[in-house]
Amino acid sequence: MSVPDYVAIGRGIVADLPDLLDRRDASGNVFLIADRNVGGLYGAATRQSLEAAGRQVSYQEIAPGETAKALTQTSTLYDWLLAEGAERGDLIIALGGGVVGDLVGFVAATYMRGVKWAQIATSLLAQVDSSIGGKVGVDLPGGKNLVGAFYAPVLSLLDADLLLSLPPRQLACGWAEVIKHGVILDCQFFELLEARFDDPAEPDLLLAAVRRCVEIKAAVVADDPLDRGFRAVLNYGHTIAHAIEACTGYQRYTHGETVAIGMSGAAAISRRLGLIEPAVERRQNDLLARAGLPSRYTGAAPEDILEAMTRDKKAFRGRPRWVLIEGLGEATVGSEVDLEIVRSVVSDLHE
Ligand SMILES: NC(=O)c1ccc[n+]([C@@H]2O[C@H](COP(=O)([O-])OP(=O)(O)OC[C@H]3O[C@@H](n4cnc5c(N)ncnc54)[C@H](O)[C@@H]3O)[C@@H](O)[C@H]2O)c1
Ligand SMILES: [Zn+2]
Description:
Blueprint: E1 7-10, H1 17-23, E2 30-35, H2 36-52, E3 57-62, H3 71-83, E4 91-96, H4 98-110, E5 116-121, H5 124-130, E6 135-140, E7 143-150, E8 155-159, H6 168-185, H7 187-196, H8 203-223, H9 238-247, H10 255-272, H11 278-290, H12 302-310, E9 322-327, E10 330-335, H13 339-348
Parallel strand pairs: 1-8, 2-3, 2-4, 4-5, 5-8
Antiparallel strand pairs: 6-7, 9-10
Helix pairs in contact: 3-4, 5-6, 5-8, 6-7, 6-8, 6-10, 9-10, 9-12, 10-11, 10-13, 12-13
The structure holds nicotinamide-adenine-dinucleotide (NAD) and zinc ion (ZN).
Nicotinamide-adenine-dinucleotide (NAD) binds at residues 35, 37-38, 41, 64-66, 69, 96-100, 102, 122-123, 125-126, 129-130, 133, 135, 144-145, 162-163, 165-166, 170, 173, 255.
């Protein structure tokens, strides 16, 4: 497994942005978009380093948070690009977490039928997950990520030092996806995390985690670029997670927190089906707890969670397809699970 060409990973490498863009043949004027939080921290420096390298830069900030991932926001950005004179040969750069990456990537995919784009991923979730695989898009009032495209950036810049300013809860959110990568596909990586996990904000640990997750996710995506088969393995923990998010109005928990609860549910199902020993489930849940993640939910009734799962985008004729584990690093995709087992696990997960 290796890191794809369009991905640059390191510490302090945001300073190399102009060179990295040159190496990726990404010329043209730059249209840099950040959310207000990230813009306040890194917007000016990013802009200055591009200008010092002779680029003309237009800069725009948007409101932070998931609500920005909407068609009203894309429309505002198209108007801004047009007013600023953005052309097909120019370059759009997303500076921020997964929200800015998904939104700006979608704008880049559709403005003038597609312009090049790059992203500087600033959240752990964005570095280990959303910056790899080329999925971009926005939400509709009727559901998340319902409009989008596959449109890979020319550069995903992943600088672990940018994670130092991330609020602890957002860091924990990313750790859920990191641990997921180990549990589904890489036992050795899981064991490395078990051995080294002490301070979740330790930059060299973060760097090692980002690198390994990128390798794992990129390998899965290369196998199934359009998400029609094995890529579903990345959905481990997400069947229950999406239902909890929907039933709690996307407010109570971060995405990663619901993924952690969902992983605990998927491991419990795997154990009840006799696929894993209780010790495997315990090790997974211990590591999630060490990252500061919950294993139980509240704020929604188990019956509502069950009902929401039948409406999941990835369900087949109203029945969820489960990603389960047969050991650490050994996931299986597409299982149907007896409703009584699911009901009992979802009810045990309630606080
Ligand atoms: N495209 C994909 O394949 C894919 C995969 C997973 C998730 N996603 C999407 O990603 C989004 C979630 O991403 P997210 O968790 O990064 O959310 P986010 O972009 O909202 O970032 C979380 C919060 O952290 C702040 N932040 C980000 N980087 C920071 C930094 N370095 N310092 C201080 N604050 C910082 C942001 O301003 C925001 O308030 C969802 O919309 C989800 O659908 C996409
Ligand atoms: Zn996820």
